[in-house]
Prior knowledge:
Blueprint: H1 15-19, E1 28-32, H2 37-48, E2 52-57, H3 60-74, E3 79-83, H4 89-98, E4 105-108, H5 126-141, H6 143-148, E5 153-157, H7 181-203, E6 209-214, E7 217-218, H8 228-240, E8 246-247, H9 249-252, H10 254-261, E9 272-274, E10 277-278, H11 299-320
Parallel strand pairs: 1-2, 1-4, 2-3, 4-5, 5-6, 6-9, 7-8
Antiparallel strand pairs: 9-10
Helix pairs in contact: 2-3, 4-5, 5-7, 7-11
Amino acid sequence: MTELITTPFDRNSTALDVIDGIDLTGQRAIVTGASSGIGIETARALAHAGAAVTLAVRDTDAGQHVAQDIAATTGNNDVSVAELDLADIASVDAFVQRWDGPLHILINNAGVMTTPETYTEHGWELQFAVNHLGHFALAIGLHACLAAADGARVVSVASSGHGNADIDFDDLHFGRRTYDPGVAYGQSKTAQVLFAVEADRRWKNDGIRANALMPGGIWTNLQRHWDPGTLAGMKEQMAAQENSIMKTPEQGAATSVLLAASPLLDGIGGRYFDDCNEAPIVDEIIDGLHGVRSYALDPQRAQQLWQTSTDLVTTARSNDS
Length: 321
């Protein structure tokens, strides 16, 4: 087994700590879901280092407010907003068609969690559609632009929630299983890790490296579908702990920024990180936050998912035409 990658950074490091001393002038980055949560702080750190950053968001008005704030706090006015609805393949394709020129950093950050049972117009379970399939189609569509950058990085923001479920290839969209929001979320996050594994295998000879990560426990809009009483109770419980496991958004964005921009990750791909270091393979997620399950890094499952995802997206496009 290869030795785990370690860095000087840890769970307390912020995105700005990680980006300190790095110059991204001349580089172009896309951050999906950058109108809230860790997406904002990820985009801010990249802009701080001089990158031209595109916030790919559903709510462009909210995105414009964030872009203005990032420009004001970093002095970098090259922060733009583009509409992207990852649940809608037509929206993903339109975003890709508007993009022109090389792309150095793609951060697949947007996501939904534990949603009520919902399906897209193509019959896809919403969490699998947004968290995986939309990002899959986006990355595939931008492949030539990533290859043109000569050293691009793709970052897949997954979750320790992948420990809740492997992928059920026979029933991806809960046609036979009883819908369970936590299982659906876990499956979608496992898919995001497997995507990074296979994307790295396929694209590293094009100069593109891909990795996945767990950002940590952060209170954001991601928890909006939780029961309000349960959420309030957990926040109170965590706040009372002397050494809380929860992070700030600035800390939560650190691992994304590390994988996107740090020279410490040059030539590294197909791996899973948490707290700014590569995570060990575990039989059970430690403390609910740490480690990666072996099935999420399995190369055969990664190849199977790639083909399955390709078939789903291709069918959706043909039905739209």
